């Protein structure tokens, strides 16, 4: 299994191109199931989650072609993927394919909307809490689907098609909102989604669907209204830049010190995280090229954070921020409100000498002047990159094991960091 070796201590200087967002690319690719025309997506990141979703879509009959440079090749721009679901040959998404990635469950909505039936294995994905699918199923039922659960599979049917309805989510859910939107675009009549997620990736999905002929208003707000269409056509769309990757490298610079241009980053996608970083003493400058992040030798101030749905501080940056706070001057309180059990990085950070106390959903981090490199284990996607950030500022060598978690969501991580002067290398095998 691949490992990443990091020798800490170097400042980061240079530029890092920001990739297309994984969390946008996955629903955009899934939306290709809604039409028998071709959907073309530009700026798709080279990630193992993208390849896994291509396998899942292929199983349903989606043909794809990839242009642009391939996995492992140097490139500054993302790949272009053409997806064509001319014929859906299978409406079942089997356990072997779905269990690795929670977002693969989202195929349920377009399959049901277009074919009137779908059988999808209950999902897997990062081990960051129980992550149920009850809100997804509630939304589909509201739209008229019959739902049964049998032997680990959700079987959804809508013999006479889906019908527009009011859906109110009891809690903000990104996947639930994606599901409701993809189901409603082909339903008869009007659907109103209340307490919808406002994450930019929802806006990106809706932007593609509108190009395909869907009638959607209110995307990016908490109420989305959709007038169902009888058919959607093909379209071409560019995946928005990855705000979590952007925030991650910004935190890496805040941790290691230096001056880095995050090329193509859009500050409005993570204003809260940037405000928080500014409070820690980092300097954030929006420019035409992207976002420039700097920190001089003045140290890291301790700042409290509570994760919230967008536009709040993202849960997907919590582990990275905690890594940064391990070296702050003072005590920081980090509250995780989205996922229970999303603190698996705490015990790994302790291996660097970090002082963190856990009490339910609250982590109290007492900054220490130095961290020491250590062998650590990646436990989930975002937690693992938190360990990388800690390693960049730790004295000596860190070996990060199980880096397949990183490959799910961070394109060319070691190359992007080493071109800015970090000592990072991947050891294969
Ligand atoms: C998506 C993101 C993930 C991010 C998360 C929150 C993708 C591929 N993944 O995950 O990176 O961390 O949003 O921003 O885009 N819940 C239920 N029942 C449901 C659905 C959700 O109780 O049916 C709960 C979850 O357990 C969690 C909360 O709702 O506590 C929010 O989860 P949700 O927004 O749905 O996360 P994902 O869409 O899985």
Descriptors:
UDP-n-acetylglucosamine1-carboxyvinyl-transferase, Chain; alpha/beta; 14 helices; elongated; 4-stranded mixed sheet; binds uridine-diphosphate-N-acetylglucosamine; 429 residues; 2 domains; 30% helix
CATH domain class of the largest domain: Alpha Beta
Please report the distance between the alpha carbons of the first and last residues: 5 Å
Largest sheet features: 4 strands, mixed
Number of helices: 14
How many structural domains?
A: 2
Mean pLDDT: 94
Helix content: 25-40%
Radius of gyration: 21 Å
CATH-derived architecture of the largest domain: Alpha-beta prism
CATH homology-level superfamily of the largest domain:
Enolpyruvate transferase domain
**Small-molecule components bound:** uridine-diphosphate-N-acetylglucosamine
- Number-wise, the strands total 24
Strand content: 25-35%
Oligomer: single chain
Using the coordinates shown, work out and report the CATH topology of the largest domain. UDP-n-acetylglucosamine1-carboxyvinyl-transferase, Chain
Q: Tell me the structural class.
A: alpha/beta
Strand order of the largest sheet: 22-23-1-24
Overall 3D shape:
elongated
Descriptive notes:
This protein is α/β, with parallel strands linked by helices and 429 residues long. The protein folds into 2 domains: 3-19 and 241-427, Enolpyruvate transferase domain (UDP-n-acetylglucosamine1-carboxyvinyl-transferase, Chain), CATH 3.65.10; 22-238, UDP-n-acetylglucosamine1-carboxyvinyl-transferase, Chain. It contains 14 helices and 24 strands. The strands form 6 sheets. Strands 22-23-1-24 form a 4-stranded mixed sheet. A 4-stranded mixed sheet has the order 2-15-17-16, covered by helices on one side. The N and C termini lie close together (5 Å). The structure holds uridine-diphosphate-N-acetylglucosamine (UD1). Uridine-diphosphate-N-acetylglucosamine (UD1) binds at residues 23, 26, 102-103, 129, 131-136, 171, 173-176, 201, 315-316, 338-339.
């Amino acid at each position: 299994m691949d490992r990443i070796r990091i020798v800490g201590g170097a400042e980061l200087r240079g530029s890092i191109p920001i990739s297309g967002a994984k969390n946008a690319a996955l629903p955009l690719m899934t939306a290709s199931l809604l039409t028998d025309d071709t959907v073309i997506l530009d700026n798709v990141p080279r990630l193992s989650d993208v390849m896994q979703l291509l396998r899942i879509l292929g199983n349903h009959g989606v043909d794809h072609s990839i242009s642009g440079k391939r996995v492992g090749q140097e490139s500054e721009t993302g790949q272009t993927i053409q997806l064509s679901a001319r014929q859906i040959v299978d409406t079942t998404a089997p356990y072997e394919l779905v269990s690795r990635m929670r977002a693969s469950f989202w195929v349920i909505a377009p399959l049901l909307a277009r074919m009137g039936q779908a059988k999808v294995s209950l999902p897997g994905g990062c081990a960051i809490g129980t992550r149920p699918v009850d809100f997804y199923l509630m939304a589909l039922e509201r739209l008229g689907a019959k739902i049964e659960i049998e032997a680990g599979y959700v079987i959804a049917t809508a013999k006479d098609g889906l019908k527009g309805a009011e859906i109110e989510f009891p809690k903000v859910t990104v996947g639930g909102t994606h599901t409701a939107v993809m189901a409603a675009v082909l339903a008869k009549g009007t659907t109103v989604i209340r307490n919808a997620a406002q994450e930019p990736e929802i806006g990106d999905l809706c932007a593609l669907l509108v190009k395909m002929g869907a009638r959607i208003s209110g995307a990016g707000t908490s109420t989305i209204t959709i007038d169902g269409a009888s058919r959607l056509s093909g379209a071409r769309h560019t995946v928005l830049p990855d705000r979590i990757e952007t925030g991650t490298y910004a935190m890496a610079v805040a941790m290691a010190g230096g001056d880095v241009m995050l090329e193509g980053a859009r500050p409005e996608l993570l204003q809260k995280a940037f405000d928080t970083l500014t409070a820690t003493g980092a300097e954030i400058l929006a420019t035409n090229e992207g976002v420039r992040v700097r920190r001089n030798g003045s140290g890291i101030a301790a700042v409290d954070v509570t994760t919230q749905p967008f536009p709040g501080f993202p849960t997907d940056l919590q582990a990275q921020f905690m890594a940064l706070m391990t070296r702050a001057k003072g005590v920081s309180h980090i509250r995780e409100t989205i996922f229970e059990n999303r603190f698996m990085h705490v015990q790994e950070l302790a291996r660097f000498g970090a002082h963190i106390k856990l009490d339910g959903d609250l982590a109290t981090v007492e900054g220490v002047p130095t961290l020491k490199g250590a062998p650590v284990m990646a436990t989930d996607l975002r937690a693992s990159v938190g360990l990388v950030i800690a390693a960049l500022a730790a004295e000596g060598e860190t070996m990060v094991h199980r880096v397949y978690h990183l490959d799910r969501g961070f394109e060319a991580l070691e190359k992007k960091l080493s071109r800015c002067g970090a000592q990072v290398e991947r050891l294969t095998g």
